[in-house]
Amino acid sequence: MFEDITKVILLSDMDGTLLNSEKQITAADRKAIEHFMSLGGKFTVATGRTIQSFRQYLDMIELKMPVIMYNGAAIHDFVSEETLYTHPLPSEAKTLAMKIFDAMSETGGEVLKTDGTYVFSNTDYQQLHTRICNIEPYYEELSEIEDGGWLKVLFSLAPEDVSYMEVLVRQMGLDKTVDFVRSSDIFLEMLPKGVSKGSALNEYRRLKGMEGYTFVSIGDFDNDIEMIREADLGACPSNAEDSVKNVADLVLTKSCDEGAVAELIGEIIRRCTND
Questions:
Q1: Is the same domain home to 188 and 237?
Q2: Among 16, 211, 235, 268, which residue carries the largest CB count within 10 Å?
């Protein structure tokens, strides 16, 4: 599996994994990634971010491989500027979002499409998400956002209210045609049924030129679980949620603040050398 490092691709989550608590890439991780790539290894990212919000990180690290975006609803190549794969929400997504918003009108919310982010409820939690993503969103009423091309809907609210919303969508039967997943303590996302970073990893395997690659993944939160399961080697930093640690093949000793990605790269290099 690790006979040839040039046939290994590492996919890393961003927040809480590649990015530390200051939203920066540690010097240790940056150096390790550069070394890994100099040996012929392939490195890229799997994120919930949009194409627009991810661009700020292109100055931090060179990415020659396509990136998994929108928590698995798209794969985008920032070199060719081609979107190689999309899986949008079904047509009833707006109706489902409006039912949730009617039941919990205090929630913040946004719709993410390939052409940008549309904020329909600009609460304090929503403003926090906008600042994290460092974007200039559009502001529209939910009912006015154009149908079609919805890749995900993000709801932002207090942690205890996220837990309540998770129960509510099940009680209302709203999870029959879409999936709901936490991407942090304060964010709950509506995604196309069966779509995750893990499903996107499998789409990645089918991309031209990716045949025979060994896929390694690393992530820290619930929205990373499927990616960790689907990888040939799935890892998590020491700061990962217990739910993630329970499915990871490798629980690293270092956190996102201490260079967890660098530790994983060291393990990949060791396995390639020994195999």
A1: no
A2: 235
